[in-house]
Amino acid sequence: MVPPLAVDIDGTLTRPDTSIDPRVIDPLRDWDAPVVVATGKAFPYPVALCGFFGIPANVVAENGGVVYVEAADELVHDGDPEGARAVAEAYRESGNDLGWGAVDPVNRWRETELAVSREHPLELLERIAADHGMRVLDTGYAYHVTATGVDKASGLRSAARILDRSPAEFVAVGDSENDAALFDAVGRSYAVANADEAARAAADEVTDAGYADGFLKAVEHIRSAA
Fold it and tell me: How high does pLDDT run on average in the chain?
């Protein structure tokens, strides 16, 4: 019997151009245990992804700020939305925008944190975030301003509680700094070959392939060990 699975999206289920690799869909659909999609993206994105994949919408979104388990119809909000809004306002007052244009689809539906383009000044963002009791995570795709104590690990613990599972039962696959805490919370963890140093250091194993190829290698290894 395979263990429950926690999996990142960007850099893990994707190709290098950030598009979803369709080869990951069937392994997730066929997984004979709960699958939790854990991402830094805003809540609607992983819910939609689960819908298109045809798997239950069990999601940890916004780096742990929003957790939803479909079968229980339970939604958990953590994080500090007021702090995130204050950081955004102060960052704009410093002469910087968030980097996503006027419509800003990256933050438009974000409920508990803030995402800033990596093309914008990081040190200034970190200072402003610290002034408001927040921290900055570099996921390799954006700078995420999040509440301290909220991360994918805290999100998975909430999801596992609702699913009546222990976090230690889970296996996790990811690629980034925001997956490192998740790796520490689960029983077994895999970083794909394109993972950053924080994720690689926290993972139990690093695959010899990157992106979706690395995810498929991890899945093969998990199944063979089950």
Answer: 97
Active site residue 78: no
Q: Given the residues 8, 10, 179, 196, select the one marked as catalytic.
A: 8
DSSP designation for 21: P
For 46-50, which contacts have Cβ atoms below 8 Å and span 24 or more sequence positions?
Answer: 46/9, 49/9, 49/20
Q: DSSP label at 187? A: S
Q: How far apart are the first and last CA of the chain?
A: 6
Q: Could you state, in order of their start, the residue ranges of all structural domains in the chain?
A: 5-78+150-225, 81-147
- Collapsing DSSP to helix, strand or coil, 173 comes out as strand
CATH number of 5-78+150-225: 3.40.50.1000
User: From start to end of the chain, where are the E strands?
Assistant: 5-7, 35-38, 58-61, 66-69, 74-77, 114-116, 134-138, 143-147, 171-174, 188-191, 205-206
Residue range 69-102, pLDDT digits in tens? 999 999 999 989 999 999 999 999 999 999 999 9
> Two tokens at 37?
């999609």
Q: Which of 72, 95, 91, 71 is nearest to 83 (CA)?
A: 91
Q: What is the pTM of this model?
A: 0.93
pLDDT, tens digit, 9 for 90 and up, residues 104-129: 999 999 999 999 999 999 999 999 99
5-78+150-225 and 81-147 have identical folds: no
Cβ atoms of 219 and 33 within 8 Å: the answer is no
Per CATH, the number for 81-147 is 3.90.1070
- Please state, in angstroms and rounded to a whole number, the distance separating the CA atoms of residues 10 and 144: 14
